[in-house]
Amino acid sequence: MNKPARTAEAEAEAVLKANQAFYDAMETGDLAALEALWLSGPQAASVTTVHPGWPVLRGRDEVLRSYALIMANTEYIQFFLTDVEVGVAGDTALLSCTENILSSNPGEGDGTVGNLIGGLVVATNVFRRTPAGWRLWSHHGSPVMAGEDDEDDEDDE
Amino acid sequence: MNKPARTAEAEAEAVLKANQAFYDAMETGDLAALEALWLSGPQAASVTTVHPGWPVLRGRDEVLRSYALIMANTEYIQFFLTDVEVGVAGDTALLSCTENILSSNPGEGDGTVGNLIGGLVVATNVFRRTPAGWRLWSHHGSPVMAGEDDEDDEDDE
């Protein structure tokens, strides 16, 4: 690292920005932007992704292929991120958030869009610091089942 | 780090051992062993866990409380880990695996165990190197939906 030491807040801010760029790329279907955000080089082989309900995908190529496939089958997708928290330790950042998703499948080919679907996904995103900025090393998203207990801290503490 | 540099294989081996100890502690219901495996100190607040279908839990205390709860409600659990892969970058390790789970809920209180349940979960486990060894920073487990495409590499490549 040949940059001056930055405050923890500035670090976290930079991770949040990379994370937002990741979801923005998904929303706009910008595969090139998405590719640029994923770790390349020596760690490319250890890149992993778990899409909700999917088995694990490993390696930069397989991960990016899955995103190309998802983008091709998604007419519209919007992420409202809530509950975003970042921890930074050395050159790694651990970010967790809730993805409030609104999406639709492709329509009937007549210019209409398919049915809108709402979804709730929790994600753990791991970033590595590189000379070019923070890059995604791992994404794991999973569905949140309805009926889970809400945070009970308010009730019993 | 005041230890001599170790080979990448020895590093990965140490991570695999910590990971196995994590699942062993779950199997034996050894909460003390489990607690010792989770990161403490400055990064304790950024510890996260997502159990299958659950929202994200944050902070060492909340995470450990969830394991105590799960252990109290689990009569029997066994993990057969498959497809285990580790990537190490600096002081962080990223491990993914498939948990083939056999478990049962508590029985009727007459000494019998409840029904055995099989489950398939994919996990992303993040470890940090500490002077005492590799410690868990994050665990994210999610159910694998049946009917997903199997790996298609054999068919089309």
From TrEMBL, chains A, B:
<dbReference type="InterPro" id="IPR037401">
    <property type="entry name" value="SnoaL-like"/>
</dbReference>
<protein>
    <submittedName>
        <fullName>Nuclear transport factor 2 family protein</fullName>
    </submittedName>
</protein>
<dbReference type="InterPro" id="IPR032710">
    <property type="entry name" value="NTF2-like_dom_sf"/>
</dbReference>
<feature type="domain" description="SnoaL-like">
    <location>
        <begin position="15"/>
        <end position="145"/>
    </location>
</feature>
<dbReference type="Pfam" id="PF13474">
    <property type="entry name" value="SnoaL_3"/>
</dbReference>
